[in-house]
Amino acid sequence: MRIEDGVEELSASRNHLVFAYYVTGHGFGHATRVVEVVRHLILAGHDVHVVTGAPDFVFTTEVQSPRLFLRKLVLDCGAVQADALTVDRLASLEKYNETAVAPRASILATEVEWLNSIKADLVVSDVVAVACRAAADAGIRSVCVTNFSWDFIYAEYVMAAGYHHRSIVWQIAEDYSHCEFLIRLPGYCPMPAFRDVIDVPLVVRRLHKSRKEVRSEMGISEDVKLVILNFGGQPAGWKLKEEYLPPGWLCLVCGASSEQELPPNFIKLAKDTYTPDVMAASDCMLGKIGYGTVSEALAYKLPFVFVRRDYFNEEPFLRNMLEFYQGGVEMIRRDLLTGHWRPYLERATSLKPSYDGGVNGGQVAARILQDTANGKNYASDKLSGARRLRDAIVLGYQLQRVPGRDISIPEWYASAENELGLRTGSHSVDINNSNIPQNSDAGDFDILHGDVMGLPDTMSFLRSLAELDALHDSVKNTEKQYMRERKAAAGLFNWEEDIYVARAPGRLDVIGGIADYSGSLVLQMPIREACHVAVQKIQPSKQRLWKHAQARQNAKGQGPTPVLQIVSYGSELSNRGPTFDMDISDFMDGDQPISYEKAKGYFARDPSQRWAAYVAGTILVLMKELNIRFDSSISMLVSSAVPEGKGVSSSASVEVASMSAIAAAHGLNISSRDLAILCQKVENSVVGAPCGVMDQMASACGEANKLLAMVCQPAEVLGLVDIPSHIRFWGIDSGLRHSIGGADYGSVRIGAFMGRKMIKSTASDVYSKSYSNGNGNNLEELEEYGIELLQDEASLDYLCNLAPHRFEAIYSKNLPDTLNGEAFLTKYDHHNDPVTVIDKKRSYGVKAATRHPIYENFRVKAFKALLTSASSEEQLTALGELMYQCHYSYSACGLGSDGTDRLVQLVQEMQHSKSSVSGDGDGTLYGAKITGGGSGGTVCVIGRNCLKSSEQILQVQQRYRNATGYMPFLFEGSSPGAGKFGHLRIRRRLAPKQD
To answer: Which helix (H) or strand (E) holds 18?
Structure first.
């Protein structure tokens, strides 16, 4: 339901109503919008009790009335910020637990008593979850007014912090479900817990003074350019300098501390300054995105230069709305902190923000609240909210906003997403029918080397490149038609020079999974979805630099020097910056490349650009490992259709495609195997994710419709295994986000290396004790254990070289289920894994993590042998059983998830259904397992290659959707690895000269 503009001033109600209005403890932005709704309720003659932690002046500056009652209380903590731009995810969850979970029973009892004592007619929440439950317990209706909810915000935090915090998300969502309906503000996130929704215009505070009056009072003439700095607190250790501003500009600073000294062109604003008036008097704003800043910037048509916040999931929705109305310019955090402001500020003042929608949302919301308190029923009889409180729909959003999902997408967001063009980065990309204008054609390029191999996604990528040339000339007139990433890419290449294109697919982990870092045999299939990277080597003087990069070069006064510029498509579908640039000299420390540790810190400075470590990190690895030096500038375009967080190795595909393209552009001849190992070095040492090598090997060395068989000791390819014609593999996405950089994967890896160290120690002890008296009296006992085997096991390089029967006979009984990090280090000193670090305060699962790779290696060997055996029902059943065993071994390690368990269960139900058992048709499914690093992601399914099996896969998808509200994406099909594809060398075909 949408309430349109043009509502007359709220009329006084015949009934004197009492509202209890709860305000979240997350910043001032919520309080400032609450003020506008409260003002209209009080104008209509009602009492409003505001429960808030915000200072009194936020409310009393705008509302002076005896009908306003302020109760100082914080019932949630919002997102805890490490600094002005960084959310601390774990601290947020721990603080919420301390604030709202531990004292929950006391909070509910106190709030029920208080609500009854004030005789509240309606509870309003922005957006305190427990307030909705307290209202229900008190028998009072409740309504939420917001653009986001905390279950959505915290969902990603849970994935990063570990599943032991997931009950927080469940409790918040359940509390919201007691709310009668949601008054939803523009720029909203998906909010699945609410049953009914009413959309209203922007809620913004009114202006008290004109631009002219504000400037006159401050003594600032109209011809002076004015920027307002509004971060809600400044980044730690940040010192503002006079040269940060263009000549003649002034900056108004919000939230500066009393002792902070400012340069003469910076003016400190008082803490109780009425910000809307000052914003409207300024020429642009520099700050971080929040509802208050975005809504008021749009309302006052104030250009907004913004810097991304880390890990606050509300931001992408507000950012897209801001940019859709041509009101935003993104500043790189590096340039914010180093003072390269000028190109951004000048760009901002050239914008013409186009928002022309309503700004009376406060008045409209107040009318709805008054009517509701008077008994009007806005809610429908739908029970969609209860159905949406399922694991995949709540925990699986994770910024994965895809058209067709069972959620409502704002018109401005859907429009922006559709106009993205080649919407790679979203797992709904159709590589057979890319959204590229028909008048651009791959034929615009001469292919000087290589073969597109008939791959439709490669043809689409070439068409998108061809389109960029035309886009570069017309970009100024197409602000709404193209997203920022397309515009940035338009000036990336010199079309008269060669461009090199590489392609690398994701992979489906058929079997082997997390045993790769323990030396297992693994079987991996390259999937259809792939990453394309285009690279051009350019003379620095010929490179078209982005304005901020040009300003940085000019500031150094050295003339043109090599610069790396990267554009990554798909950034608008996740909270990351679409561009990255750096001076290539930043990778040097004197005459040597910088250390990996220093590089890791370099990319970690700005999490919105941390993705660049996967791409730019390939350059540093080539410099360090192969002693390559890069004297030219490099421009790169990255376009990946491999969905992130699904356990199909999106990161490896980006790394392999990037390094392949860079190597081709610079004439480097690197074998596929060596390239994969180098790319693993990127992920381990530059990104800091402790992955094994199988992902990169599958992406680099795989072939279409074959399984790559390799022993990860460290990376020995045994060959390619043909998939029998009667067998087929599918991948089904659970909707739960997976990350090998997450704590769960890393802790299981640490547990396995702990186990290996303990096994080696045990073997050494048994061997040495048998010879302790020097006369061989214990020789018979030693023979029983096996002298040579004990010697080998005392120097065990890989867990997978230990046979399962030896593990059970000698070592299993000596391994603890769990072990504290400090206790392990005290006894064993080190676990000898170069890419993980033991936390002394944490306990690690040891026995299950050690057992998994030992048995997994055995399962993979059996699986490989069975694939080449005669086709039979027994063959398929045995293959499926091995996959089931693998799945449950993952769960024993702690790497399962509700979503993947449910999918495996659905496959089992399908396999053992009466129609399958009775032989009704020749199609059936035989097994399934979680893939890759676990803890969510994708399930691999094996079945007979026939139409009936495809129908059953569809049934699994539909049943999963019925249970969770999420329709799983299906991975089917295969494509060649990067080595088989090689590279393309292309050049834009020049138009024929006119006579």
So the answer is: strand 18-23
pLDDT for res 564: 97
| Alpha carbons 909 and 912: distance in angstroms, whole number | 5
Distance CA 572, CA 321 (A): 11
Q: Which residues contact 605 (CB under 8 A, 6 or more apart)?
A: 333, 334
State both tokens at 689.
């994710």
What is the C-alpha separation between 617 and 688, in angstroms, rounded? Answer: 11
Tell me how many degrees the CA angle 740-656-564 measures, rounded to the nearest 5: 100
Per the annotation, the verdict on 695 as an active-site residue is: yes
Rounded mean pLDDT, 970-979: 95
732, 746, 752: which is closest to 928 by C-alpha? 732
Give the number of other Cβ atoms within 10 Å of residue 712's Cβ: 23
pLDDT, tens digit, for every residue of 812-854? 999 999 999 999 999 999 999 988 999 999 999 999 999 999 9
Burial class (CB in 10 A: 0-12, 13-18, 19+), 344: buried
Phi, psi of 926 (to 5 degrees): -120, -20
- Concatenate the DSSP letters of all residues of 618-669 into one string: HHHHHHHHH-----SEEEEEEEE-S-TTSSS-HHHHHHHHHHHHHHHHTT--
The Cα–Cα gap between 140 and 935 comes to 40
Q: What gap in Å lies between CA 378 and CA 367, rounded to an integer?
A: 12
Calculate the alpha carbon distances from 147 to 86, 188, 203, 311, 329 in Å.
21, 4, 11, 17, 22
CA distances (Å), 874 to each of 724, 880, 881, in order? Answer: 15, 10, 10
Residue of 47, 391, 695, 898 marked active site: 695
The string of pLDDT tens digits covering residues 398-420 is 333 333 333 333 444 333 333 33
CA atoms within 13 A on the CB side of 820: 6
Q: What tokens does 756 get?
A: 């290996």
- Which stretches within 104-255 are classed as H helix? 104-117, 129-138, 150-161, 166-176, 211-218
The answer to whether the Cα torsion of 166, 172, 176, 182 is positive or negative is negative
Alpha carbon 913 to its chain centroid, in Å, reads 38
